[in-house]
Structure formats: C-alpha cells, structure tokens
Amino acid sequence: MTNSNINMRTIKTLTFSAVTTLLLASCGGTADILSTPVEQIDNTPLKVSDLTEIEKHNWGHLDLAKDTIPGMSVDKAYAEIIKNKKGSTVIVAVIDSGIDIDHEDLDGVLWTNKGEKPNNGKDDDNNGYIDDVHGWNFLGDGYNEQLEFVRILASGDTNNPDYAKAKAEYDESYTKYTGYKTNYEQTLQQVTAANEGLAKHLNKKDFTKADVNAIKTEDKTLQQYVSIAKYVYSLDMDTMSDFEKELKNGLESITDRLNYNLNKTFNGRVNGDDANDMSTKFYGNGNVKPIKKTESHGTHVAGIIAAERNNGKGANGVANNVKIMSVRAVPNGDEYDKDVALAIRYAVDNGASIINGSFGKSFSPHSEWVRDAIAYAAKNDVVFVHAAGNDSKDVDVAANFPDDNINGKEISDTYIRVGALAPKYGSGLLAGFSNYGKNNVDVFAPGAKIYSTTPENEYDTKGGTSMAAPGVAGVAALIRSQYPKLKASQVKQIIMESGLAVPSKVVVGGDTNNVKPFKDVVKSGKIVNAYNALIMAAQLSK
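^ that's the sequence the OP posted. Answer follows.
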C-alpha cells in the first residue's frame, strides 16, 4: 500500500477532554567544485522558532548551517554548484498510485515513449504494452485492495507459514481500527460543535488563535469550546477548520480500511490477471493517471522529485532535468508482488535510470519475484530508492518489503532505503512515524510535512517516508544528470557517504523513552545532503 498506516498519515491516539487526534499522520568549473569543502555539523539544536510559511513549503531544500533547518541543501547546490548548467536528461520512474500528468507543475517533466503512437490501439514499439505513452498501469481500473495479511487469511490456507501471524495481525488491526472509527466520530462531533460555537460567539468563521485566547467567559460550554480550540492549536494547526478537515479525511481513510483493506470477502483486482501466475505479463492499460482525485500519493511523490522549478507555481522539485515515467502499481491497500516486480522491470526496460518506490508492506508471499526485479535493476545500472515505512519499527527486526537482502545478504548494490526526518534539528530530528534500522535503513531525508503537487493543479502537505524517498531519488537524479558516467552503485555510495553526520542522540519511533545515538538507527549515520553529494560526485567522477 502507499507507505503508511492510512493514506500517508500516522494515527496517534492522544487524550484531552476525550479528543482523539489525527497527526500525520550544470556545475561550474570542476576545479572550483573539487576545492569546495564538505559541510559538517555539530550536535547543537539550532532551530528554536517555528517555521515561516515560506520555510514550511521548502524546508526539505534548505541548508542546516545557513537556515538552521535540516534540509538537503538543495537550494545551496543550485546556487553554488549547478548554477545555470542543465546537465543530461534523467528518466525517473515513479512506481505508485498514478500521476496527474495534466498537472500544471508536472506536465512539462513527463517521460514520453517516442516509439509509441498515442491512442491507436497498437503496440508500436513492440514492448508488449499497447499505448504506453507516459508509462503503464498494471492496476487497470482497480483502486481499493485488501492488505496482504487479509489475502493470506482469505485464501483459507492454514498450512501457509504466515497464516498464524496474519491472523494475529488481522485481529489486532480490526480491533484497533474499529476503535479509531468510534474515536474519530466522537472527536469530529466535538470539534465541529466547538468550531461552530466559537464562530457564532466571535461572529466570524475565520477566527484566529489570538481571538480564542482573548475570550473571557463564565459559560461552561464556551469554556469547553475554548479548551478544545487551544488544544487543536497546540497540534500546530492553523485553524479549527483545518483540523476538522483532517478528522474528516482520517475518518474516510479509516472507513476505507475497514470496508476494503480489512474486508476478507472483498476482491479489488479487476484487471483480469492472476496475481499468483508470473507467466502472464501484459495486462492493465496505458492510463497512468489516478482513478480518483483522492488518490494523490503518486502525484505528490512526482512533485517532490521533479515539479518544474522556479516557474512561479506551487512547488519546486529537487531535480531540474528529469522526465518522470509513471508506473501505476500501488492501490489503496497492499500492492501485489507481481505488479511491483513487473513495474520495476518495465521501468528498467524502458530507459529509467532511477526508480522511486514509496510503498511497502510487512507480508510478501512472492518476495523472490520482487528481489529478482531489484537485482535486475542493479544489473542494468538503475538506482532503486525505497521508503523505509511508517510503523515506527526497527526493520532490522520487523520485515518491511520490498527489501534487497536474503538473510542479511544483499542482492543489490543500487538499492537505497530511506527513513524520514522532521523539520527541526535536535533530539526530535527523526519523524516519529519513521521506521529505522542500523543494517537496513541506509539514510534519512526530509519526510515530515512536505509540500508538493496533488491532482487537479492543487498542492498539499503530506508526511511519511514516502515523501523522504523521492527527495533522495531527486538527489540521485541531480548526480546522474551532472555526472552521467557515474554508475548506479557509485550514486548510492555518494549519497550514503556525502551526507551530514549527526553526532547527537535522537528520539526513536516517537517514543521518548527510546533515545539512541543517530548512528545506531541508520547504516550511514547520515542525513542526505545534495550539496555535499555533488562535490563528492565531482571527485569520484574524476
């Protein structure tokens, strides 16, 4: 599924007056570059004030030393290294829920299959896929799907070695989300009443935090409304209406989880293909757009990588010379191993040099198919960037698929697994939802509260390791654009070795009782830095 618990949000249950809240959930002269020092940082928490609106929309591109925000120094890389040099064009495949290819900030960065004539019903380039003009859609008209452990239960195969584990996961999840639904319904009712009551008292709908703080009253009901509003503002919400919207979105996601993802009798696979038979490969269609507007995940991911830079519109992508290939294989639920394996192979065979995979799951009945595809990507000099997952877990212990190892032995030297950072340097640097792992998470990158493109020319802020991975895919694209002779394995080496080392301890998994040195939760011990990466790329290419 999209790499999160619910539509890229992590649900945390907090108690305050019975309120349950939804939280997240080119280069200049070579000599100049080679003489440029690599940035280092110390362990002093730097940013103490809240981010400005401009910083909120761009924090992942900022520089820790200059801006006191733990971004990837993307803006600095453009200003001091890339400058006006465009570099070579890089094709980045986004395996996801589909991309709004008509979006104002993405329509200029689309990959187009030059060997295919649009909408003629023929396979002009003889690659097996008819009318794959901007990519391929392995899901067909599918949208909702079960989770993988629900499929295991629905199969009725009690001899499956994962059956008992799947049943335990199902029982826990069904109880949890049933409780979430009740809590959200009650909370939404309270917040709606408070929002309407305060608007009536203040005689305006767009009241502010200052307006609420100024209220003096002996009315018990109004006092309760004020308390609820103050709590909402403490969650970094700008308005009560914003929080009400978050609750409604969360409730919709929870309802979908119960009705589809956790429904043992639901069958969402409508493309006519058998997901357990690898002999059939050419199914689906050429429509790479999302089925619904709410299916915004892939569009958001694509914007992080390559939204058109400095065009006066909503967001700037990390990379400036990219063509995005859309491969739709991730439904609202868990993806099928077969679809993912074929999506990776499609991307490789059609010219992608980088693949972004912002999806994942904890059960993978045909994991060998996906590992073979990851190895195929490595053999063909393709970087595969994968989101670490949003379960606040150590993936050295709790499996998260797809992965690149069998019993700890890696089968690819081009696979990069990415954890998510929050926008404040210090003990809270790791996003609370992010998975981690000294052996199996390679780097961390900005992932909480990332602003990017969403369908129908809109923009929104989302959080998850799904947002961290495309940031790293964008850095990989910058490297491959500026230094096209570097191998995919060298790109991975550069990204891991050139980052900023974090010498301090951090809160892990959102648990304040779990504090570890940063170097103990990630293989490289570093956070990704585009500026340093380009410097090291110049050195290595020489």
